[in-house]
Specification:
Blueprint (H helix, E strand, L loop, with lengths): L8 H6 L9 H7 L1 H12 L6 E5 L6 H13 L12 H7 L6 E4 L8 H11 L10 E5 L7 H12 L6 E7 L7 H5 L2 E4 L20 H10 L3 H8 L4 H17 L3 H9 L7 H20 L11 H19 L4 H16 L5
Parallel strand pairs: 1-4, 1-5, 2-3, 3-4
Helix pairs in contact: 2-3, 4-5, 6-7, 9-11, 9-13, 11-12, 11-13, 12-15, 13-14, 14-15
């Protein structure tokens, strides 16, 4: 494959965008937490070298990946991309000289595709921004050889100016080593609305209890499963104790394992994971300026708490030591809470 050259005016005029135009304001509306995470990264010049966007086909993964690439090279950014300058338009049409987009779905991404991508990106940047990017859409459709070749590329990037953006609708099918070396950003659908009165025998006598059910359920069927889950009341209790500790600023490392979690429980890992899922929802809403229950957290603390909690859950999926994961989570959450509170 010949190296890309800068697109001519005729090529620009005739080419169509890969997907419909997607702006930062649309991202804010549809995925406020993703918007806050990206805004924080770009605003503070802390863009990671590799990202993994996860979600369903309804969460506009390719559009978000393109917006991230545009934000790297935009000629007139307002933190994130303007989406209308020449560079942004060329990214959206896959005509940007220093970018590679691989979208082989539904066919498999082969090792040759990854090697060709590496070759294309090995040259000196042509564009004024001096930034390179690669987008691989539906990374779960990679052959094992392609996935291993990509892993080596992520571990040994050719340039500090390169950003790798991967997308998947099946996070668990992506190599654990690729997941662990990428910043995972989860894009969510709007969940179905339901109420405890619709479920016979559900004892959701207070707002926090039902909040916990909603955080762990995306459908009425999920609520029924949680209702019959023996360990779930313990996760609800741990969530309530966490709220108290956050609002009263109790030292998490001192009281956390004794007060919040009982790691000697036979289902301790399941309880911890469910509790973190509930707290993730709380942190998301705080970060999006929708703080529930008058919880004493700033939006910045909410965002940092969300990233920390999701990282802890990610480590647990890799069968990391439960005690160590909880200890690290408690220490880092305590550090976050030391910052100025609301």
């Amino acid at each position: 494959m010949a190296r890309k050259k800068k697109a001519t005016a005729q090529e620009m005029a005739s080419a169509s965008p890969l997907v419909p135009l997607f702006t930062s304001s649309q991202l804010l509306e549809s995925q406020p937490i993703v918007y806050q995470i990206l805004k924080n990264s770009f605003q503070n010049n802390k863009v990671n070298h590799a990202y993994l966007l996860t979600g369903s086909d309804q969460t506009q993964l390719l559009q978000i990946a393109l917006l991230m690439a545009q934000s790297l090279v935009c000629e007139q950014p307002d933190v994130l991309a303007c989406s209308v300058c020449d560079s942004c338009l060329r990214v959206s049409k896959n005509l940007y000289s220093d970018g590679v987009i691989i979208n082989s779905y539904p066919s498999s991404i082969k090792k040759e595709d990854i090697l060709q991508m590496q070759s294309d990106l090995a040259n000196t940047a042509l564009e004024q921004a001096q930034k390179k990017y690669v987008i691989i859409h539906h990374i779960e459709h990679s052959s094992s050889e392609a996935a291993n070749s990509l892993l080596k590329f992520i571990e040994e990037p050719q340039s500090s100016s390169l950003t790798i953006i991967l997308t998947t609708t099946d996070e668990n099918s992506v190599l654990p080593t690729i997941r662990s070396r990428s910043q995972i950003i989860r894009c969510t659908n709007k969940v179905e609305s339901f109420h405890p009165s619709q479920f016979e025998g559900l004892e959701a006598s207070d707002e926090l209890t039902w909040y916990a059910y909603e955080a762990c359920a995306s459908s009425r069927l999920d609520v029924e499963k949680l209702k019959n889950k023996e360990s779930f009341p313990l996760a609800i209790d741990a969530f309530k104790k966490s709220i108290t500790m956050i609002n009263e600023r109790h030292p998490f490392m001192v009281h956390g394992q004794k007060t919040v979690f009982n790691l000697k429980e036979t289902q301790a890992k399941e309880i911890v994971n469910d509790t973190l899922t509930i707290l993730s929802r709380l942190f998301k809403e705080v970060a999006a300026l929708q703080s529930p229950f008058n919880v004493r957290l700033t939006p910045k603390q909410g965002l940092e708490g969300l990233i920390l909690t999701q990282q802890c859950q990610q480590n647990l999926t890799h069968n990391a030591n439960l005690n160590l994961c909880v200890d690290l989570w408690l220490i880092e959450l305590g550090n976050i809470l030391k910052e100025e509170s609301v």
